[in-house]
Design a protein that fits this description.
By secondary structure, the protein is mainly α. The chain is 46% helix and 6% strand.
Length: 267
């Protein structure tokens, strides 16, 4: 992570498509599959919420440690088409479980809170020493939500990420930026965000690092290099530096700086 010039975050929200409930137990009148409203989980009626928490659970194993979560199938299906398909496949082929070994367990904790409560923690309420860790967890949450198709939570995650960076006075470094380009599509807003962060770091006269710090990102993702250059171009406001083809001198000659140049073009 690096120290940035600050930028305040905007906030925006999205909504879900409503999904079918897969299961309803004996405590409620059996109606077969039915369609739920697309309201936020925190705004559902008590009856609807109870129906979402009825029925069997699905075991989900997350991260390198394969941490197990047992979550209600109805609730998973209600929120995500990805989980809906995983539930169908899991019942038939995977012994009723889903593996997310490549995802971050801290990010999944935030997902679970949102699934059941309709919200995640606000980084502004945290102490300064915890803001960056939470911001990074929200970056991982965004990547997870991009994978499982949760646009509303993606927007919450990127808002919390930006606010956490701003309040901590830190931004992601190259090692944290490259996975964004490896795991998201070209149209991803998070790509736009991190490329602008990199561009601003490069242009900041008070930043000790130059563009070479992003060498691995440039090599690992040509799209990252293009987006950074375009972000720099947009931020210059159309101002051009001096034409490098104009004039004489030996600034482009192959000799040591200050060495007497015998080229006639220098006279």
């Amino acid at each position: 992570m690096d120290t940035p010039p600050y930028t305040p975050p905007p906030y925006e929200h999205s909504s879900f498509d409503s999904l079918d409930i897969l299961y309803c137990d004996f405590a409620y009148q059996q109606k077969g599959p039915f369609r739920m409203s697309n309201t936020d989980i925190a705004e559902t009626t008590s009856k609807t919420f109870a129906e979402l928490l009825s029925g069997p659970v699905m075991d989900i194993y997350v991260g390198k440690t394969k941490r197990r979560w047992s979550l209600h199938r109805n609730l998973l299906s209600y929120h995500s088409t990805y989980f809906r398909e995983q539930i169908k496949e899991g019942i038939k082929e995977k012994g009723g479980k889903v593996d997310l070994f490549d995802d971050d367990s801290n990010a999944f904790e935030l997902l679970v809170k949102w699934l059941y409560q309709g919200k995640i923690d606000d980084v502004s309420t945290m102490t300064i020493d915890k803001k960056w860790d939470y911001a990074f967890a929200c970056q991982q949450l965004y990547l997870l939500c991009d994978k499982i198709n949760l646009p509303q939570l993606k927007n919450l995650a990127i808002d919390q990420f930006r606010r956490g960076c701003y309040e901590a006075g830190l931004v992601p470094g190259p090692e944290e930026m490259l996975p964004v380009y490896q795991k998201t599509p070209p149209s991803s807003p998070f790509r736009k965000l991190v490329s602008k962060i990199a561009a601003r770091q490069i242009m900041d006269p008070n930043c000790e690092n130059d563009a070479s710090v992003y060498r691995d990102c440039f090599a690992g993702s040509p799209d990252f290099a293009i987006d950074v250059v375009n972000a720099i171009k947009q931020s210059t406001g159309g101002n051009l530096f001096e034409d490098p083809t104009k004039g004489g001198g030996c600034q482009y000659h192959d000799h040591h700086l200050g060495q007497l140049c015998d080229s006639r073009s220098c006279t």
